[in-house]
Amino acid sequence: LQFSRATPGRQFSTSSGKLDKDTWQGSLKYCENIVRRYDEDQYLCAMLGPEGSWPVLMMLRAFNIETATVKDVTSNQTTGAIRLQWWHDALDELYNKKLDDPGGILSQPVLAMLYVLLHRYHFPRELFQDVLDAREEDLDGHPNTMDDLLKYGETTQGRLFELALHSLPLRDTDYSYAVKACRHVGRFVALSTMIRATPFLAARNSTYIPNSLLKEVDLSHDDLFALCSNSVSSTPLKLCLRAMTAEALKELESARELRPKITKETALLLLSAIPPLSYLERLKASDYEIFDPSVINATGLEPLKMRLRLRWNSWRARF
Asked: Using alpha carbons only, what angle is made at residue 102 by residues 100 and 108, rounded to the nearest 5 degrees?
């Protein structure tokens, strides 16, 4: 099943002309490669996005990957904070137009794309800052409550969807409902991702299962990490996963209730909800056996079914 990109209607360029065509194409290719490698589901969703949205979605998804993986590739909180501060400083340079040395931060492909796209779209700086602030708070340790998880989802994935909205021609009334839908889907996508990451994070003595939820089912961090190291499930762990899944699905349902009030273009942006929904459906069908290989990765005809589902939902503008 072949997908085609939602390519831009015209060539992007900067008013200053400081970014040549080769640099633009190389930066876009970098973003495409990193998204396809680390988040193939969202790569497929972007292919079905609104017309002209491809460069924006690739830039935003690559920004998400670059900043989300800081926690994974750094050995301590201080090093992670320094890396995230570099992104803060780079955004300051872009938004304040203090590019004394364009070859500096613009050698980073994601920032080079943002530099160009800022000449066409108004991306509120505070939305990018919210993502970085949330990533920095995430360096501290485990979340305490479900509300902490929801807030994190809104200020990361939710903000990325909001940024993408600024590439669409929306009226004020459309925008208000679109933002609400984006925040709900952002929380849904983030919660689903955190559930899916449970086995992999536990191997590094980390988890997104809230402390309050672990306490409620009488499951300690040490017991959780021991279970995951042996790929063994338990009733307390399943109860945690069931509670998180239920919360995620509530967010998706809240977003779907807004479908009559948002535009087709906004709905196409929110196709990103389909792949994590497919994952949660597999998890529920297995009775929350999170270590089941068929849950971790779709097998057999499931990948094809998911692509067909994306096609069908894009045609209907549903998520």
From this structure: 135
Contacts by residues 14-23 (CB-CB < 8 Å, ≥ 24 positions apart): 14/115, 14/116, 14/119, 15/119, 18/99, 18/102, 18/106, 19/102, 19/106, 19/112, 19/115, 19/116, 23/106, 23/112
Q: What are phi and psi of 196, to 5 degrees?
A: -65, -30
The DSSP letter of residue 262 is S
Q: Which two tokens stand for residue 18?
A: 């400081």
Q: Kindly list the distances between the CA atom of residue 36 and the CA atoms of 43, 104, 160, 296, in Å, as whole numbers in the listed order.
A: 6, 26, 17, 18
- The answer to whether residues 238 and 294 touch, using CB atoms and an 8 Å cutoff, is no
298: region left, alpha or beta (phi > 0 left; psi from -120 to 50 alpha): beta
Sequence-distant (≥ 6) Cβ neighbours of residue 37 within 8 angstroms: none
pTM confidence score: 0.91
Residue in 62, 54, 7 with CA at minimum distance from that of residue 37? 62
> Cβ–Cβ contacts within 10 Å for residue 234, how many?
14
Radius of gyration over every alpha carbon of the chain, rounded to an integer in angstroms: 20
pLDDT, residue 299, reads: 81
Residue 58 to residue 79: CA distance in whole angstroms = 27
Q: Which of 226, 247, 248 is nearest to 237 (CA)?
A: 226
Dihedral angle at the C-alpha atoms of 303, 265, 159, 88, nearest 10 degrees?
100
Closest CA to 239 of 251, 227, 229: 227
Residues of the chain with pLDDT under 70: 1-19, 98-103
At 63 the pLDDT is: 98
Q: How far apart are the C-alpha atoms of 86 and 95, rounded to whole Å? A: 14
User: Is 12:55 a contact under the CB 8 Å cutoff?
Assistant: yes
